[in-house]
Amino acid sequence: MATLGELERAMMDLLWESSDAATANELREKLAQREDSGDGKGLAVTTVLTVLSRLEKKSLVQRERKIRPHRYRAVTSRAEHTAELMHEALGTANDREAVLARFVGSVSDSEAQMLRRLLGA
After folding, report:
1. What are the helix and strand counts (H, E) for the chain?
2. For the segment 62-89, what is each residue's pLDDT rounded down to a tens digit?
3. H or E stretch at 71
4. How many CB atoms lie within 10 A of CB 120?
5. pLDDT for residue 40
6. Dihedral angle over CA of 64, 65, 69, 75, nearest 10
7. Are 14 and 22 a contacting pair, CB within 8 Å?
């Protein structure tokens, strides 16, 4: 599971927040609104397409090719992506128990209660 750069993360945030697929131009406009740069300029659509292509190669977005302009949607939810990252990070640990103990020791009381509930303990 590849980590995301700043622009990749911004585009994934937009796709995760929407239930609909979006074109590169729609994503570019939404990014420009978020940045609110005031100069009327935003990213070039070619830059957005390049980032979307990278995200597609990372299997994070799916391109709908049947219509033009192509539309893009997230392949998984934000929660699924985050869980995969956590699982991958845990998989690289030499001492999984120590990593889990450190993680559990750093969560809030409400998060600990949630973990207990999810584990059925």
Report:
1. 6, 2
2. 999 999 999 999 999 999 999 998 898 8
3. strand 71-74
4. 5
5. 47
6. 20
7. yes
